[in-house]
From TrEMBL, chain A:
This is Elm. GO terms for molecular function: calcium ion binding. Belongs to the calcineurin regulatory subunit family. CHP subfamily. Keywords: Calcium, Cell membrane, Cytoplasm, Lipoprotein, Membrane, Metal-binding, Myristate, Nucleus, Phosphoprotein, Protein transport, Repeat, Transport. SUPFAM superfamilies: EF-hand. It comes from Drosophila busckii (Fruit fly). Residues 26-61, 104-139, 145-180 form the EF-hand domain. One of its GO terms (cellular component) is nucleus. PANTHER family: EG:114D9.1 PROTEIN-RELATED. Transmembrane segments: none annotated. Its main location: membrane. InterPro entries: Calcineurin_B_homologous, EF-hand-dom_pair, EF_Hand_1_Ca_BS, EF_hand_dom. It comes from the Eukaryota. GO terms for biological process: protein transport.
UniProtKB/TrEMBL annotation, chain B:
The keyword Signal applies. CDD domains: LPLAT_LPCAT1-like. InterPro entries: LPCAT1-like, Plipid/glycerol_acylTrfase. SMART domains: PlsC (SM00563). This is CG15450. It comes from the Eukaryota. Coiled coil: none annotated.
């Protein structure tokens, strides 16, 4: 029974977000109402806990990384509505009406790359790959096996022979994948 | 004269209640006409704005497709094949997209907030309006203003006075009844009769309209389990059968009522944080439930209020006590006002104001035949079976999630 007046955004804000992300005003209002319902403390920004509170998300193996991706731009570990929308805009389907600068194939790939590249140095090291592998398989495969999988994968993909995976290698590995289909979600109009 | 008072009071209450039942019926019919008019007006307005119409239709379609889309994603996640980087990243992307989809929409968290009113309908309450006020036609605006004035200047003050009087009455009467010696054989039936009249009287002021189904299954003793939406559940149920209540000891208005009730009849209020009490509590419940002379115990095994669109995980404690439980299903009609109490967001006083300023709280009560625990069944399985039965009877969703996720964050203990 929250305060309904906060459900409405100002026209300028909608226009600005529309301009940045390419969402329609209807989509923006719908997402704003979701944003306010996730914001349990009614403070206008979300914390990590607010997102972790979605139980089905919390059991996703990559939950921590997904939540972390919302906070890449924030300085105080809270995300406001514009930052929230900017992250979501990466997942707009490409073929949907007009393309914005956030949902191109390259941006989608960059987003996925950053999931791996924890220290933000532009390459995926063996340990970074290992940590994602570990999250995805849980305790089902032993550490030794994981290490050998990680090393084999890097050997296979590493074109510049530096023992790490660069963004170019990453794109190369996904050459034949329909990135738009994989990295898009359905937004209601 | 003083002796006549205990007699006269229930009589006058009964009279008032029977009058009010008739009035309630008229009132509800009137409201239905009013809402159908306001909904028509709103739909006419939406036809002029096709965008909104489109949006609502798409939303309905999406609601149907949403679980299927999730199931497909789940399958994609399971079909892993260990191979080179492309495949690994592919799986990773699926998980990311799946996670982000949940940020947009999920099954569980909306159950902890007030449910959205049905699309294309409006009951003239400001809190249920899904579009900006200035977009309404002048007819609707006028209607809204009139209803606002009626509710806040007439209904709210009258109801507040009435309910204040009720609380005072209950406190006085229970103090008097508590003085009666326990050995009186007629004490129990007198207490039950008087308290039921008090609750009936209070439903005239907290505007509760009840529809009872399957009255033949009304519990007489034992353990009765029910889905939980708000503290009003207790009032709705206590009008019909006198229960022994259990629950967390509260402060404030609830505390006053709790302390009053316990003076006259056996109720179990405890401190949830004091775990030492738990064993003693189980024993007390077991003894109470086994005695067919005691009133039935009312339990809300969800442990927290859910917005009446789903039944969530039941605590198994209540199902371990006894092999037979009497399930009761409650469903509120949101058209006249939402009964759900979002205790993490709104205080008791604010909630009371929302209730008092609603049109009415309309509730369907289904008594269900007693459920027996099967010989090979664990308390957990038994609780699940009863939960599914309650959800099916009330026509609401049956979710396996724990309602206490409302307050605490999920813990990933399976790793």
């Amino acid at each position: 029974m929250g305060n309904k007046s906060s459900l409405f955004l100002r026209h300028e804000e909608i226009a600005q977000i529309q301009n940045e992300t390419g969402f329609t005003p209807n989509q923006i209002e719908r997402l704003y109402s979701r944003f306010t319902s996730l914001d349990r403390n009614d403070c206008g920004t979300l914390s990590r806990e607010d997102l972790m509170r979605i139980p089905e998300l919390a059991i996703n193996p990559l939950c921590e990384r997904i939540v972390h991706s919302f906070f890449a731009e924030s300085t105080d570990d809270r995300v406001n509505f514009r930052q929230f929308m900017n992250v979501l805009a990466h997942f707009r389907p490409l073929r949907d009406n007009k393309q914005s600068k956030l949902n191109s194939r390259e941006e989608k790939l960059k987003f996925a790359f950053k999931m791996y590249d924890l220290d933000d140095d532009g390459v995926i090291s063996r340990d970074e790959l290992l940590s994602i592998l570990h999250m995805m398989v849980g305790a089902n495969i032993s550490q030794d096996q994981l290490v050998s999988i990680a090393e084999r994968t890097i050997l296979e993909a590493d074109l510049c022979c530096q023992g790490k995976i660069s963004f170019e290698d990453f794109c190369k590995a996904l050459e034949r994948t329909d990135v738009d289909q994989k990295m898009s979600i359905r937004f209601l109009n | 004269m003083l002796l006549l008072l205990p007699l006269a009071l229930p009589l006058s209450c009964a009279l008032l209640c029977s009058c009010s039942a008739c009035l309630c019926q008229r009132y509800v019919e009137l409201l239905e006409h009013l809402f159908s008019y306001s909904s028509q007006q709103l739909q006419a307005l939406q036809r002029q704005q096709p965008a909104i119409d489109e949006y609502l239709r798409e939303e309905q379609q999406h609601r149907l497709q949403f679980p299927r889309a999730l199931a497909q994603l789940g399958q994609a996640k399971r079909g892993r094949t260990p191979a080179e980087l492309g495949a690994r990243i592919g799986q990773c992307c699926d998980l990311i997209a799946e996670g982000l989809q949940l940020v947009l929409e999920d099954e569980v968290t909306p159950r902890f907030a007030a449910a959205a009113p049905p699309a294309g309908e409006w009951n003239l309450l400001t809190r249920n309006l899904r579009q900006q006020k200035r977009q309404l036609s002048w007819r609707l605006q006028l209607l809204w203003l009139l209803s606002l004035l009626l509710r806040y200047t007439l209904l709210v003050p009258l109801r507040c006075l009435g309910i204040g009087g009720c609380i005072l009455l209950v406190t006085l009467l229970t103090a008097l009844l508590g003085q009666l010696p326990n050995r009186c054989s007629w004490k129990r039936s007198l207490v039950q009769r008087v308290l039921r009249q008090c609750f009936l009287l209070s439903t005239c002021f907290i505007p509760v309209v009840r529809r009872i189904h399957n009255a033949q299954h009304r519990p007489q003793f034992g353990i009765c389990v029910c889905n939980h939406t708000s503290p009003l559940d207790v009032i709705v149920l206590m009008c019909d059968v006198h229960y022994s209540l259990t629950g967390q000891r509260q402060d404030g208005i609830l505390g006053i009522i709790q302390r009053a009730l316990v003076r006259a009849s056996p109720h179990l209020w405890f401190e949830r944080s004091a775990l030492l009490d738990r064993q003693a509590l189980c024993q007390a419940l077991r003894l109470h439930a086994a005695d067919s002379n005691e009133p039935p115990i009312l339990l809300f095994p969800e442990g927290t209020c859910i917005n009446n669109t789903a039944v969530m995980q039941f605590r198994k404690g209540g199902f371990a006590i006894c092999n037979v439980v009497y399930p009761v299903a409650l469903r509120y009609d949101r058209r006249f006002g939402d009964a759900f109490w979002d205790s993490t967001r709104c205080s008791m006083l604010r909630y009371l104001l929302l209730i008092m300023s609603s049109w009415s709280i309309t509730c369907d009560v289904w008594y269900m035949p007693p459920h027996q625990r099967l010989p090979s069944e664990s308390a957990l399985d038994f609780s699940r079976r009863v939960k599914a039965a309650i959800a099916a009877q009330a026509g609401i969703d049956d979710l396996p999630w724990d309602g206490n996720l409302k307050r605490s964050n999920p813990v990933r203990d399976w790793q």
